[in-house]
């Protein structure tokens, strides 16, 4: 009986893998593992559809907008720690000092980061992570890679995720329950902010996987070259825009609205290509780029940040 169960499980796994390979539609040189990536993309989509998205919708429904904005600002302030560290590693001293000033101003005058006073003071917000630092020093991106639960990435960005873990302040929060609680709140807040954006993708993209992949890779190239790639500026200087079910309503802190573009990368960007791939890869996906979403340190994983 146990042997039969093992055989059935093996056949199920094989069928899942074959179904992923069968959906390859748009092969490109950056994505040699498209069959595997599509399978993981579908898995992430189901996790989001039945778990994360309903929770995010409930959070958005019961939480007053000012509280949502404060939660977004709080984790965005923590995310500036990544920006400081990586700008200094890249010897971008002026940007690093600017990001450090953002942390100080928002922590002191913004009540621990609940209010984005630094943006109102015209201090720009940069977007950096260790994957970009590796690219700055010449490491190639490698093949496109969709990570389970983490979403769009590349081999280089996946390596950078491990380094981001050591920089995230949430990694060192005790007790463990508080660390996990903050981690969960960050994920739910990020997903809630992107509900409208992912709905836009669902209506606009014929192949969501290809759309997410292309926008993520373009966005990462844009960030690495500082705009020299010729892509438009998607508004990294402003906090993440707030999306509702009808579209963009404005940034969390009241700063000027970033240029909307096609959302979703994924770290989110979006993040991660438009800003939305930084935070989500498509409607119903948990595909937050690996550099943006990282669990607390208790089990040796990196931790999550917002741009």
Automatic annotation (TrEMBL):
Q: Hey, what's the signal peptide range on this chain?
A: 1-24
Renumbered residue ranges of the record's region Disordered? 230-307
**Record's compositionally biased regions (Low complexity):** 250-285
- Give the Pfam families listed for this entry: MlaA (PF04333)
- Which Gene Ontology cellular component annotation is one that this UniProt entry carries? membrane
Q: Tell me the InterPro entries matching this sequence.
A: MlaA
**Keyword Signal carried by entry:** yes
| Record's keyword terms, sorted | Lipoprotein, Signal
Top-rank lineage group of the source organism? Bacteria
From the UniProt record, give one GO term of the biological process aspect: intermembrane phospholipid transfer
Q: Which family does it belong to?
A: Belongs to the MlaA family.
Name the record gives this protein: Phospholipid-binding lipoprotein MlaA
Give the organism the record lists.
Paraburkholderia caballeronis
- High-level lineage: Bacteria, Pseudomonadati, Pseudomonadota, Betaproteobacteria, Burkholderiales
